[in-house]
Structures
1.
Amino acid sequence: MMINANELRLGNYILQKINNRIVTVKCTAQHFELLNTGNGKEIYPVILKAEILEKAGFSENKDYPLLPEAREFILVLPVIGNNKNEIRAYIKNNKECFGRAVVNGLPVSNNFYHLHQLQNLHFALTNEELEVKI
């Protein structure tokens, strides 16, 4: 699965095939160049999963009613105001993982499935980079 250059910002985490190994790297200007010249076949999105969510500061909701078949992870956002702003991520029983922005318990974004999308949403909502301990 390829990534469109317009989905990325400098510093987003992506996967790149280097010397027959796939490694997690931060997006640089060189990656944009590769993508824009059609040479981005070796660049892939980082798919969300529990370990990635935990490295990004999410906490698992141990009271989630669908446990153990499905899981919920929550990241509380530092947004000014009286609303409860969060990004919630879910791992379904088929192991597919997706996230979405939630305000006062109501979804306010479409589902997303990749780490760079999570990073971009976090930045858009907080004006701060999401720290991911990769």
2.
Amino acid sequence: MYKITGTIKVMNPTVQVSEKFSKREFVLTENLSQYPQDILFQAVQDRCALLDGINVGEQVEVSFNLRGREWTSPQGEVKFFNSLDAWRIEKVGQGIPTGGPSNMDLSDAPSSNQVDALLSTNEETDDLPF
């Protein structure tokens, strides 16, 4: 598993390659090195939907796998291909995802005095040897 952060430069539509296979390609510009790199990624099958909320120009962190394969042409020439398969795409600076701790209602949380009282009660009745 690899991760990289950059800016979305190109976002292509989902392409139905065959009846059972679809993919969506996008280009990420990595700006952290001295010479920025434009890197082509692909999302396949149900992961194509990961790109629906992402727009060109947004900064994202992409988690991906490096895939390689061999192909023999009809003329018998052997070639090797690599692909970068994205499996998670997150906008940078978005914080905790919706539904996470940032949305918790803390009004019913016990006070520190209540927690201390519970701990002291449990210590008195605790019969565990450790």
3.
Amino acid sequence: MFRGDFQSSIDPKGRISIPAKFREVFVETFEDERFMVTKCLVGMGDGSNCHGLSVYPYREWLALEDRVDRGEGFTSAQLNSIKRLILAPAVECAADKQGRVLIPPTLRSYAGMDRDVVIIGMQKKIEIWSQENWERVIGQAEKDFPSDTAALASLGI
């Protein structure tokens, strides 16, 4: 599973270096070096969204597509939105020998990425955020963090 957070930057060619720890997970856990990069939206509590990128191991991506195809719990309009905003812009990628991956300009632009980025492990996927957007997302996470200590204790936190 993907765990940890890493500071990185985008090189002049639009490449991001995937941390070695995460590259090992692709091979050892998911047995495939391929992955899918797509848009990530996080609600900000004020009705706005913050934009980043999600990176799914290829096997997890196929499972996600299957769940979307089943569409349980969503209206057809919501499913079409998911398909248009998440599935359609996805790009299959693989890291080069130095662990770099080229992020297409359209996805970099969407996520507001021009230099400094934060790469975080989210169990079965990775998220990549511009430094500015990461600060907004983590600030919102702190606001949304549960205050119910019993519920937290039930999770072992």
